[in-house]
Amino acid sequence: MRIAVIGAAGRMGRLLLGEVLAAEDLELVAACDRAESGLIGTPAGALVGRQGGVPLSAVSAEALAAAEVVVDFSLPDGLAATLDALGGQALVTGTTGLPAALAERLTDRAGVAPVVAAANFSTGVTLLLDLVERAAHALPDADVEIVETHHRLKQDAPSGTALALGEAVADGRAVHLAEVAVHGRSGHTGVRPAGEVGFHALRGGDVVGEHQVWLIAQGERLSLGHVAHSRLTFVMGALRAARWVSGRAPGRYAMRDVLGL
Ligand code: NAD
Question: Which distant-in-sequence residues (6+ apart) come within 8 Å of 98 by Cβ?
Fold first, then answer.
């Protein structure tokens, strides 16, 4: 399968390059990053200590033309550039922190070609989303608090995964997340309103990603959580999604679809 990687010089991008170059069934046809990057023109292999690979280029329709699947782990403006450059290719994207207008463009894109978009490509988190939805439904009166921890370089908060977990709670209770979410607390907050979903973002060091969902009731507390030890879990999930989505009908797919949950 012919694959293009966007955000190729980033943390996720380099891991993707390494796995794509090592896989016998995948051919790297484009590796793209910012036009201003000093690495433009560098062979993709050199970014990951391997031989060969296409030279790193800016995102353009020409660069992506040969790809069957485009895998984007960049930043919101990188995803916007990818959407501008796409033809009929399938898209797998894990980029988070999307402004509403960009999220809408992604939905529009799913009308013309297949898209797998997930805030977290790990199998464990995909399962966690299911468990949290069920728990929130089964414990309708429990106070829900979502705590996430990431490395100090992360640019958006709360994490896309924390928001997806909040959506799972809202789905389980048939409410709209925007109407019940509260982001951090300080000052004279008053008594905690029933139904509120609290989000708390911790940042520091090199933490790959931790998410904890607390469902706190009278007399008991259920805690469901996930710890990513390595970014490779996201990379393997994204490549599983790329292999799965190739040749599918247009539509918006989630990791739950890829895993058949
Ligand atoms: P990073 O900052 O290390 O890498 C981002 C890369 O994108 C950089 O090389 C940057 O130059 C490039 N980029 C930015 N704008 C661009 C543009 N306009 N055109 C081309 N390239 C551009 O970040 P990262 O840790 O690799 O994470 C990337 C994204 O993936 C973030 O949004 C992060 O939250 C998300 N992420 C998602 C998952 C998941 O499973 N869904 C897992 C990890 C990270």
Answer: 76, 79, 106
